[in-house]
Amino acid sequence: MAMDHEQLIRKASAGDVGAFADLTRRFRHFAFGTALAQLRDFQQAEDVVQEAFVAARKALPSLAEPTAFPGWFRGRWLRH
Hints:
Blueprint: H1 5-13, H2 17-39, H3 42-59, H4 69-77
Helix pairs in contact: 1-2, 2-3
C-alpha cells in the first residue's frame, strides 16, 4: 500500500532517504510545471527544481504541518 504524502513527509523529516525519494517522485511534475511557468526556460526550470528539492530536504524538519507541503514547497523553494 502506498503512503500518502503526509506519511512520506514525516518519514523524510526523520531522515528516511527512501521516503524523500518517493516524495520527490510524487511532486517532480508539480515542481517542474511551477518552475517552467515562471521561468519559461526548460533547462533553468530543471535546475531550479533540483536545487529546490535539495533545499527542501534540509528544511523539511522545520515544516510544522505536513499537509502544507505543496504550498510550502512552491512558495518557499520555487519562487523566482
